[in-house]
Amino acid sequence: MTTEDLIKPSESTHAFTGLSGQNQLNPLFCREGESSDFPLNTLPQGESLPETAYQVVHDEAMLDGNSRLNLATFVGTWMDEKAQRIYAESADKNMVDKDEYPQTAAIETRCWLMLANLWHAPDANNAIGTSTIGSSEACMLGGLALKRRWQLARRAKGLSTEKPNLILSSAVQVCWEKFCNYWDVEPRYVPITDEHKVLDGHDLDKYVDENTIGVVAIMGVTYTGMYEPVAAIAAALDRIQADTGFDIPIHVDGASGGMIAPFLQPDLRWDFRVERVASISTSAHKYGLVYPGLGWVIWRTVDDLPKELVFDVTYLGGHMPSFALNFSRPGAQVLLQYYLFLRLGFDGYYRVQKASQDVAVYLATEIGKMPAFDLWNDGTDIPVFAWQLSKGYTQNWNLYHLSERLRLKGWLIPAYPMPDNLSDITVQRIVVRNGLSRNLAESLMLDIREAVDYLDRLESPMPTEGLVGGFTH
């Protein structure tokens, strides 16, 4: 054998050719598609190797931020390996197809019954609930039920149903603005102020009238994490009913607090123990600890959900009741929720939520000690808190600049203006979720102190052009 024979490609090598005819034994990043561009906005003309397509998508996704360091979002970013296995095994399940997946449907019912009991429904077996795509859909369904109940009651008395309104805090989550817009309901915003930092029943009589379909009470305001006092709001509505006869129900938006308060503040009356609460929604992919997207909504009794809103659907050979804005949707997250209910139980949820709250209180305490900042709240409701720049502390920088400095270290901590009446106040907010350990929190504090020290050494004001608020629900 000659030297030329040793370096000549063998026939077996030519057998491993890709779709382009190039040698598949080339290193990955020499393949077509890795060494050249895929079209970005048009469908590629031909096929590519699955390994190449995977690598392209994988590499693009690396450009996203590190989700564990994203302290802007409430959405869960970590689940254990067994949950990930369940997720992979059940990714094909369609939640709407209860005839094909009856056990997943049964598990959905078990989950909302567990929540009905957790939220002290008078008789969980006489309650009714459903899973949703996140808490925004759950809020929409809760709002629709309020509107339809009001319409039915007005029609029974021969009264007009032309001008429904809904009472909301000015710090309400944007899904309620969408609800009012999409379903022609007038939103009546009660402004938050320095004296009334949340909707607390103060001056509620100025907003309620015969066309009010309900009041939304938020367990964990997205701007700050504070609870709105449901019992105090209900007491104000009791007084209004005594004076006017208006019987106004409450929907509790427990997107975050619905899975915190039962464990960390078990004696707080915010749920179905308050008789005026007709429905409660929560986000399973927030402090329910499930990957997105899953929500739950539950009504106190079957009578609180007008039967006119529930459709009997024939689908793929079976009959099923349906009350949802979406039709086909993933069933995997429902199974993940059930896994967590079994895996953690009440005690496990308590420990997980308490650990998050402890980290939030630690961070709030340390930030509160810094002369640059004044705390808005301390993280003892849901594990979320906000702060503002101390009045007169500096003219050289603001919280948007601090947010940008922290982003250089990978931390996403938004700065944003408060809602109307307080829009001249800018705050910064941290959301502590399962996965932000005490060690990471201590590292964050080092980075915050370092960033503030850098900004404090500025001899002239930082430019403000192009600064963008980073508020994230």
TrEMBL record:
<keyword id="KW-0663">Pyridoxal phosphate</keyword>
<protein>
    <recommendedName>
        <fullName>Glutamate decarboxylase</fullName>
        <ecNumber>4.1.1.15</ecNumber>
    </recommendedName>
</protein>
<feature type="modified residue" description="N6-(pyridoxal phosphate)lysine">
    <location>
        <position position="286"/>
    </location>
</feature>
<comment type="similarity">
    <text>Belongs to the group II decarboxylase family.</text>
</comment>
<dbReference type="InterPro" id="IPR015421">
    <property type="entry name" value="PyrdxlP-dep_Trfase_major"/>
</dbReference>
<dbReference type="InterPro" id="IPR015424">
    <property type="entry name" value="PyrdxlP-dep_Trfase"/>
</dbReference>
<dbReference type="InterPro" id="IPR010107">
    <property type="entry name" value="Glutamate_decarboxylase"/>
</dbReference>
<dbReference type="GO" id="GO:0004351">
    <property type="term" value="F:glutamate decarboxylase activity"/>
</dbReference>
<dbReference type="InterPro" id="IPR002129">
    <property type="entry name" value="PyrdxlP-dep_de-COase"/>
</dbReference>
<dbReference type="GO" id="GO:0006538">
    <property type="term" value="P:L-glutamate catabolic process"/>
</dbReference>
<dbReference type="Pfam" id="PF00282">
    <property type="entry name" value="Pyridoxal_deC"/>
</dbReference>
<dbReference type="GO" id="GO:0004058">
    <property type="term" value="F:aromatic-L-amino-acid decarboxylase activity"/>
</dbReference>
<keyword id="KW-0456">Lyase</keyword>
<dbReference type="GO" id="GO:0005829">
    <property type="term" value="C:cytosol"/>
</dbReference>
<dbReference type="GO" id="GO:0030170">
    <property type="term" value="F:pyridoxal phosphate binding"/>
</dbReference>
<keyword id="KW-0210">Decarboxylase</keyword>
